[in-house]
Amino acid sequence: MQDDAPLRRPLPALDDTNRFFWTSGADGRLRMLRCSACQTYVHPPRPTCPTCHHADLEPHEVSGRATVVGWTINHHQWHPAFEPPYNIAVVALDDDPSLRLTTNLILTDPDDIELGLAVEVQFLECDDVWLPLFRPIPHGEAG
Ligand code: ZN
Question: For the chain, what are the domain ranges?
């Protein structure tokens, strides 16, 4: 690696089950797997529904809006691509609060993070993957 090469995040390994999720951001839309039989959202992606065991699961477009339900701030540089301090957050999707994603929040001041913060997806394109990160929804646009 050259010294001036951009630092790269570790990226997920794509397979036939999860490819739709990691490439969904190509058109700016977040999609989650949903069971055609019982309408349950299923995440992480898997071949069968954990509720009814049906195998007819399809990617379904969701709003991309979510609520922060937990976070931590890292002050140690565990990976060269993550300059401390940086956050790791868990967000619950508005479409179904049982759907939770571990992500990074896009904001400049970690002190701005709070439980219940309204956020929306913003994708970070890395090679053939669109990482779903989240940013606070500006006041007046929430809801
Ligand atoms: Zn089902």
Answer: 19-136
